[in-house]
């Protein structure tokens, strides 16, 4: 069977996307080829997902779609392997920071779409932003939306916003995971067994996100609703403000954005 989806780099994000695409039957495993240097990782991916694997990036060049899922730092090395690329292959890059302009210098005539998904892809709850390059036609965009709608929500943005997207929703799962961990630690400090604290923390974050999403309430209004006069919540809120919680989160997203810009300049 011919290869429809070639993936270069079989790491964390490739697996997060692949697992969902196969579960949703967007691709048959026979039609997927992953190029990955580590033999142990190849064997793992082949055994778990029944996909084709290789260590030779050149084997992927005739795929209908190529998902570039390597680190931005190895793009130059990988581009040398793709000199025989078919000009009809749709290139989808999830590389943080790397601009379309740079990708179009490498893959001269190919349609290229810059995409920033996130790891909740594994459970179909990703947030993905996409920006199209100059050779992209409507059928390329439809194909890309079809792929990324299968792993969660999709938004089309101007490329100039992609580094900011990367700082927020690309890196965001790590920040939220730290918040969940810290909430659970707080519960443990207050005497809860960890086995109880973690599910409480998790459901609190999940439920709050659902509440804000479903009702459309502003986050500040929800905070006010929870905060009884002279009560427990305002005592906690005062501590968060004293410790610079909101500022820390803002600065985290901004630092991730700046790093995305920097990675693009180095690519
Ligand atoms: N992790 C995330 O949450 C997100 C990541 N991204 C982007 O996705 C990309 C991949 O990130 P992530 O999955 O976290 O990284 P990983 O390091 O987990 O995956 C990259 C994979 O590429 C392999 N690789 C290295 N060199 C080559 C090569 N020359 N040819 C083919 N494969 C190679 C690596 O192998 P080895 O380990 O042996 O080096 C590794 O398995 C990055 O560009 C990142 O910016 C985008 C959104 C979210
Ligand atoms: O940390 C990184 O560079 C990648 C990009 C977005 C999430 N992870």
TrEMBL record:
Residues 159-263 form the Pyrroline-5-carboxylate reductase dimerisation domain. Pathway: Amino-acid biosynthesis; L-proline biosynthesis; L-proline from L-glutamate 5-semialdehyde: step 1/1. It comes from the Bacteria. GO terms for cellular component: cytoplasm. NADPH binds at residue 57. Residues 4-97 form the Pyrroline-5-carboxylate reductase catalytic N-terminal domain. Its main location: cytoplasm. One of its GO terms (molecular function) is pyrroline-5-carboxylate reductase activity. The keyword Amino-acid biosynthesis applies. Keywords: Amino-acid biosynthesis, Cytoplasm, NADP, Oxidoreductase, Proline biosynthesis. It catalyses: L-proline + NAD(+) = (S)-1-pyrroline-5-carboxylate + NADH + 2 H(+); L-proline + NADP(+) = (S)-1-pyrroline-5-carboxylate + NADPH + 2 H(+). Its EC number is 1.5.1.2. It is found in: Cytoplasm. GO terms for biological process: L-proline biosynthetic process. NADP(+) binds at residues 8-13, 69-72. InterPro entries: 6-PGluconate_DH-like_C_sf, NAD(P)-bd_dom_sf, P5C_Rdtase_cat_N, P5CR-like_CS, P5CR_dimer, Pyrroline-COOH_reductase. Pfam families: F420_oxidored, P5CR_dimer. NCBIfam families: proC (TIGR00112). Catalyzes the reduction of 1-pyrroline-5-carboxylate (PCA) to L-proline. Belongs to the pyrroline-5-carboxylate reductase family. HAMAP family: P5C_reductase. This is Pyrroline-5-carboxylate reductase.
């Amino acid at each position: 069977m011919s290869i429809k989806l070639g993936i270069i780099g079989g790491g964390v994000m490739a697996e997060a996307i692949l697992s969902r695409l196969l579960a949703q039957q967007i691709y048959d495993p026979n039609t997927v080829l992953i190029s990955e240097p580590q033999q142990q990782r190849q064997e793992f991916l082949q055994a778990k997902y029944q996909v084709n694997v290789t260590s030779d990036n050149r084997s992927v060049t005739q795929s209908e779609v190529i998902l570039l899922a390597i680190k931005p730092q190895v793009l130059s090395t990988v581009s040398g392997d793709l000199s025989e690329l078919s000009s009809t292959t749709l290139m989808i890059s999830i590389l943080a920071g790397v601009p379309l302009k740079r990708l179009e210098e490498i893959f001269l005539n190919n349609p290229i779409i810059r995409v920033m998904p996130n790891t909740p892809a594994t459970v179909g709850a990703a947030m993905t932003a996409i920006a199209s390059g100059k050779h992209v036609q409507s059928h390329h965009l439809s194909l890309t939306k079809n792929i990324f709608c299968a792993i969660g929500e999709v938004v089309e943005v101007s490329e100039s916003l992609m580094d900011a997207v990367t700082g927020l929703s690309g890196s965001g799962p790590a920040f939220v995971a730290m918040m969940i961990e810290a909430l659970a630690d707080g519960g443990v400090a207050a005497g809860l067994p960890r086995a109880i604290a973690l599910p409480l923390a998790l459901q609190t974050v999940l439920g709050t996100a659902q509440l804000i999403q479903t009702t459309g309430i502003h986050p500040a209004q929800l905070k006010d609703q929870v905060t009884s006069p002279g009560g427990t919540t305002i005592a906690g809120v005062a501590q968060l403000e004293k410790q610079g919680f909101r500022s820390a989160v803002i600065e985290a997203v901004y630092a991730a954005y700046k790093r995305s810009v920097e990675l693009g300049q180095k690519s």
